[in-house]
Amino acid sequence: MKNVVLLALILVLALVATLSTTAINALGEADRHTPGFPQSVEGFQLPTSPPVNLSDVENAILELSKSSALSRGDAEKLKDFSNLSFQEAVERIDNPELRDSLLNLAGKGALSPEDVEAFLNYLNSLKTSGALSPVDELLALRALEALASATQNPYTSEIVLRTLSALKGLEVAQSNPLPALKSPQQFSAEIPAPGLPSLHLPFVALPAIPQLRLSLPPIPLTTLIIIAICGSVALAALLGRKYARPIFKRLKIHRIGGAPAMHIGDSVLEAYWRSVHIVSTISGMQKADSETHREFLAKVCERLDPRVAEVFKDITLAYEVYRYGFRAEAGQRILSGFRRLLEHAMVSA
Known about the structure:
- The chain is mainly α.
- Among the domains are: 54-186, no CATH class; 260-348, no CATH class.
- The chain is 62% helix and 0% strand.
- The chain is built from 13 helices and no strands.
- It is rod-shaped, with a radius of gyration of 48 Å.
- The two termini are 23 Å apart.
């Protein structure tokens, strides 16, 4: 029984360890949103982006300069950013290829949506290849915005949004967070100004933290069955002493009372020895061969119910009188005492 209990405990501990490891690994996947925050973007409409203009970019550049996030040379190039003309912005760009592309774009006159999108894609290719510095990107976008404003192009505000995104990238590159600078996620390049046609411009934004959830793997049915069996065995073993032992005692006493004759030769003597067997079963103390009847009586009465002890004491005294005094009335006391002992023993066991 001890081995079965040990095996059950080992299986339960192994299961607990497995589930604990899974929970620890999934801890980083806990929901990061406050209660009531929508977990799915389906049906969730972004708020209308606030009006933005070059003054927002200008203020952000000033904050970067004050926080020493910009070098003195870069700060000088971006000085008076919102008032730069197309020609001034182009002259401050270090990349000669980018300067030529802007001059060619200016030679076309009015800008079409395809022209704007093609130039922004060109900026992305330069940025991917590492040939475009953050400052040159800002100046190129300022020059593009100046061209768009001069030709009354409807995509001016979207170019400014792209400029804010580039400025945020410069802030991150300098590893100097700026509280006053709004995150690019606060501005949507996909939302055009009211009444203007939509132009899907490339938009550079910081990667968002994915929504992860805590989830435990499903437990196989066979594992649940094994756990239930082991748990039942362990529970039965732990509670067996409290509940099973009295039941076994009653069954054993019942068998003693209904057992066939012991062939001792005298029904009175047989009734006495069956009484000894019953009290031994109840108390868990066996009569030694070297013990006298009085010694066994004194020893076993400490473990017996008072009513059972009183009946067995009367049986023992009557046994001595019957065996050594040869009195028949003592035999009747033993027989009646045995029947009473059997009744009390079934109740007290």
